[in-house]
# Entry
Amino acid sequence: MDGHADRVGALSWNKHILSSGGRDNLIVNHDVRVARHNVATLSGHSQEVCGLSWSPDGLTLASGGNDNKLCLWDAATSSTSTPRFALTEHQAAVKAFAWSPHERNLLATGG
# Structure
């Protein structure tokens, strides 16, 4: 699978879309049903993307980076450098996050 210039350290599935986050600071969405699978490249981090997680409803992708930043991306987003929301107040790399199974749009993060 192409799309990254460096190693991939994070993966998350959303139906037929496999999102990958890499040391090259990028997130690449791959549609595994087609040969030209790279359908979006997201660039909102300034350091390695070290965590990815799709929301249970499949509408939002959360990404965490070594830049201490958490980004939320819309599923309908194609290539962009602007997340829907960015949180920059973590004190360390954002590697731990989990969507609540009980409350829609509730995301717990650590970093």
The two ends are 29 Å apart (CA to CA). The mean pLDDT is 93. The CA atoms of residues 51 and 64 lie 5 Å apart. The longest strand covers residues 8-14.
